[in-house]
Write a structure and sequence with these properties.
The chain is mainly α. It has helices spanning 12-26, 33-40, 44-47, 54-77, 83-100, 102-110, 118-135, 142-164, 174-194.
């Protein structure tokens, strides 16, 4: 990435972009102040002017990855009006994101969103909004929405994590299994909405 010139001094976004580049090149284990400083061609203390250590770096990067993920998810579902087709497209878009960016996906999954943290709360709200749009169910109770979000996220992200870990070894196409799982999720969502 290279060191910023004096005229273009280092910004927090430069640090985040460099961290994402490191993760894309080397995987989730490359996320750290020392590695990002090497990527930028600077000494680690320069990063501390923008982010106070590895924990804050990981948080800033995870939140940026969520934004990338939501942008891709929105793009892949934007013109689909039928809720079932939209939710299925969202599941496929999530898997595509994880396949295209395995390190970013891993960092995103390792970051715990906290509802009492304002930045995390924004991501949670954005996720809830996307689910409401995908489900075409603005009138869902909060508890039903949470139950659906947990079920969908656990199923889709759990499948992706198992797949990335190489644990889905039985002699059946993972693509075919994923399609069946998405169809089953759609039926389970209808059950939660009705009860």
């Amino acid at each position: 990435m290279g060191r910023p010139t004096k005229e273009n001094s280092l910004t927090k976004q430069d640090v985040i972009n460099a961290a994402i580049a490191c993760i894309e090149q080397e995987g989730a284990s490359a996320l750290g102040v020392n590695r990002v400083a090497r990527e930028l061609g600077i000494k680690p203390p320069a990063i501390y002017k923008h982010l106070q250590g590895n924990a804050e770096l990981k948080k800033a990067v995870a939140l940026a990855i969520y934004e990338l993920y939501f942008a891709q998810l929105s793009q892949k579902t934007a013109n689909i009006k039928e809720p079932r087709a939209c939710l299925k497209a969202g599941g496929l878009a999530s898997r595509d994101f994880a396949r295209s960016h395995p390190g970013l996906f891993q960092v995103m999954m390792q970051f715990q969103l906290q509802s009492d943290d304002p930045e995390s709360a924004l991501v949670i709200q954005q996720s809830q909004g996307l689910f409401k749009t995908l489900l075409d169910s603005q009138g869902l109770s909060k508890t039903k929405l949470i139950d659906i979000m947990r079920m969908v996220n656990s199923t889709i992200f759990g499948f992706i994590t198992l797949e990335q870990s190489g644990l889905l070894t039985l002699p059946r196409s993972t693509d075919d299994s994923f399609e069946v799982i998405l169809d089953a999720l759609l039926e389970a969502i209808e059950y939660i909405k009705a009860n």
